[in-house]
Structures are given as structure tokens and as C-alpha cells.
Amino acid sequence: MKSIQVKIIDPIGLHARPASKITGEATKYKSDIKIVLDGKEANAKSLINLMALGVKSNSKVEIVVKGLDETQAIVAIEKVMRDNKLI
Questions:
Q1: Distance between CA atoms of 69 and 54, rounded to whole angstroms?
Q2: What is the C-alpha separation between 73 and 64, in angstroms, rounded?
Q3: Could you give the C-alpha distances from 72 to 16, 22, 29, 36, 58, in angstroms and in order?
Q4: Residue of 4, 6, 13, 15 marked catalytic
Q5: Phi, psi at 64, each rounded to 5°
Q6: Which of 62, 42, 51, 44 has the alpha carbon at shortest distance from 14?
């Protein structure tokens, strides 16, 4: 299992456009990918789950990845978040 903590800097928080990019990237991997906020988990492969978390600007979230391709998956998810100026 691999995990990292990141701070959301987008003024709107985790909204639909970047959430869909995260979901699109997450579905490329076999590993389980979760986004955790205040003890609540969301499956990163589900847009509805991500949006239901209600991640606001300045929130600290944890990305937790578990599986055979966890190293590649966590790097890719972090990159998507950086590229979309979420973190």
C-alpha cells in the first residue's frame, strides 16, 4: 500500500472537471485507489463517489493506493492533480 497527503489549492475545491480527469486516470490501473477526507473514503474510479466527498479548497486529502501497480498509479494520480492545478 502507498499513500500520500496533498492539499487542495483549487479555489473551487475538487469539482467535476478535475474529478473526471482523476477518474479517467484511475480506471487505467488495477489497484484500488481511494481519496480520503476526514475519515470518509471515495473510490477514485467513481466520479459520483469523488464528488460526494465534497472536497473544499484548502482541504488535506490522502490518496491511498493498494495493488499490483500501486507505484505507477499513485504517481499518475498525483500528476493529474498537479496538471489540473488541484494541488
A1: 27
A2: 10
A3: 24, 14, 8, 19, 26
A4: 15
A5: -120, 125
A6: 51
Residue 15 appears among annotated catalytic residues:
yes
Residue 14: is it exposed, middle or buried by C-beta count within 10 angstroms (0-12/13-18/19+)? buried
Q: Which residue has the cell 477526507?
A: 37
Which residue do the cell numbers 470518509 mark? Answer: 40
The dihedral of CA 3, 61, 9, 30: what is its sign? Answer: positive
State the average pLDDT over residues 51-64. Answer: 97
- This prediction has a pTM of 0.94
Rounded mean pLDDT, 68-76: 98
Instruction: Tell me the C-alpha distance between 83 and 77, whole Å.
Output: 10
